[in-house]
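Board notes (copied after class):
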Amino acid sequence: MFSEWFHKGGMLMWPLLFCSIIGFAIIADRFWAFAWTHLAFRRFITKLKAHLRSKTARKRPACLSSRPASASVITAIYYDYLKEPHAKRAEALKREGLRHLEELGVRLKMLAAIAQVAPLLGLLGTVTGLVASFQQIQTMGGRVQPMDLAGGIWEALITTVVGLSIGIPCLLAHQYFQAKIDQRAHEMTETVSELDEIFAHEEAPTEISDGL
């Protein structure tokens, strides 16, 4: 059935197929990336607070994850710059935090573009298909059966269906990943705030924004 639809959809089915392959590959890649960097944040922050209240607060905490989880990464950087002036440490935290968020958001702009372009390609395919159908009606002098007209219209609508079937999941996935990036930025900011409360309580905590 798919091959029949693909054939009847016309030439624009090829760029739609390309969009679907790229879009769903990006979605799979980002799902893996967020799963790999996942951290039970509340459990982590509870352990970090307990460590900060202990006598070994200046030693690197044992609760750091072996994976590149956002809160764990920013904590490791904080301890790397613990003996540096607060301004230098804050600059390093912002730089490395933004770099980490950019790595999480890689190719999301392309995913957003596919979510916008795929439905437009589908609409273009439908319009060109309808133009061809009405051109055929004109060639036949208007002597057509209703079944001929209905067949041409449903074939023209195939590309719109396919375009929306690609665009909607890509749009939802993009919004989901963007929300996860915002959440990671908040987690890193909260982690730095907890660390600043112990080591730099006299100065304002460092804020990290995703900037995407």
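Comment from the instructor: The longest helix spans residues 146-199. The two ends are 41 Å apart (CA to CA).
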